[in-house]
Specification:
Oligomer: single chain
Radius of gyration: 22 Å
Helix content: 25-40%
Distance between the termini: 35 Å
Number of strands: 18
Length: about 375
């Protein structure tokens, strides 16, 4: 628990990070991957900080995934290398990708369309360097990627492998459909299916004389990996260092594993509506999770009968799940901590995080922002 005097010095809303839980979550993921014999390439998109990246990479500052070029540049500027920009190549960012490719030992891009490959072919790198490319494969997630069953997928992989100045580094799959799961059994069924489809595709590549890496990832699937995942080259989860209420509902973690909170204060009493007002609106929490929890947009720690029922930009409306509020329990200025539904969405709302260890404030982390 965070000590009250340490919290009282902070202006709200504020994002609080439990460093001990972050380290524990990161260590457990490393252990899982070591046991499987698969390489962990942690995703930076949830926290976007140097400090958490150091924890996730064990201090190596190598082998990471990012979702924006702002993240890629931020990490490159601070001594990180072997960076995979795991977002299908945006054509307005080819030059920035080229600059990173020419500067780092290993900068890797992602694509899922022959027109993107053509963009790379038209922009050869200096000093005889190669573009390092991962192909995005959709194994039933239904977002980006060439569908695994589409003949165009093999055709594209072959084209990447045969294009001058380009090297096919791997096949990248996101099993985001694991977010629809409830419980370990369902998570592992999705992990097994995604792994199987990925490995089948790798076999088809091998039959064409093409060998490259394979990588799948999502926090649920990597929190409860299946044995078949040992046959993959890499996994790339990201949310697991923070976790959140959503992950606890899915079954990836327990509520005790969630390492982030949002500090807020009571700023108004509305007895005519049986509500409290707090100083955290969607600008401090995000609107992610609407309608998903009986407690509203978040869980209010230590107050199971309270619901964050509505938010505007800077205000939150809190009401009891049942009964009438006893306002004497919540004088103005009362501090509350919200456990976010989706920590990625909440963290991106904050320009600094307040880091605690053993209940004491240790300092601040400053994430990178933008695209």
């Amino acid at each position: 628990m965070m000590q009250e005097e340490a919290l009282s010095s902070l202006s709200s809303p504020a994002l609080l990070v439990d460093l001990d839980k972050v380290k524990r979550n990161a260590h457990r993921m490393m252990e899982r991957c070591d046991k499987l014999g698969v390489k962990l390439r942690p995703h930076m998109k949830t926290h976007k900080t140097l400090e958490c990246a150091d924890i996730m990479t064990g201090g190596s500052r190598r082998c990471i995934v990012v979702s924006t070029l702002a993240e890629a540049s931020f990490y490159a500027d601070n001594g990180f290398d072997d960076i995979l920009y795991a977002y299908c190549l945006p054509f307005d960012k080819v030059e920035r990708c080229a600059a990173l490719s020419e500067r780092l030992e290993l900068f890797q891009v992602l694509l899922d369309h022959p027109q993107a490959l053509e963009q790379l072919r038209k922009r050869p790198l200096s000093d005889g360097r190669q573009w390092h490319v991962w192909m995005k494969l959709d194994c039933s997630n239904g977002r980006a990627g060439v569908l695994y069953s589409n003949p165009e997928a093999l055709k594209l992989a072959k084209a990447i492998a045969e294009t001058d100045g380009v090297e096919l580094n791997g096949v990248y799959v996101h099993c985001g459909n694991s977010y629809n799961c409830r419980g370990v059994e369902e998570i592992q069924a999705v992990a097994k299916e995604t792994t199987s489809l990925t490995l089948q595709f790798m076999e088809k590549l091998k039959a064409l004389g093409i060998t490259c890496k394979s990588s799948i990832g999502s926090t649920p699937s990597c929190s409860h990996p299946v044995e078949d995942m040992a046959q993959l080259s890499e996994v790339h989860p990201g949310n697991y260092t923070f976790y959140d209420v959503q992950q606890s509902v899915i079954g990836s973690c327990s509520l005790d594993d969630v390492a982030v909170r949002v500090l807020t204060r009571v700023i108004g009493h509305c007895p005519h509506r049986n509500q409290l007002l707090i100083d955290c609106g969607w600008a401090g929490l995000s609107l992610d999770g609407a309608g998903k929890l009986p407690t509203g947009y978040a869980m209010i720690e230590g107050h199971p009968n309270l619901k964050l029922s509505a938010m505007t930009q800077e205000h939150g409306k809190v009401e009891p799940i049942s009964g009438l509020l006893d306002y004497s329990k919540y004088p103005l200025g009362t501090m509350m901590t919200l456990i976010p539904y989706h920590s990625c969405a909440t963290a991106v709302m904050h320009s600094e995080y307040y880091v605690f260890s053993d209940g004491r404030l240790q300092g601040k982390w400053k994430p990178t922002r933008g695209w």
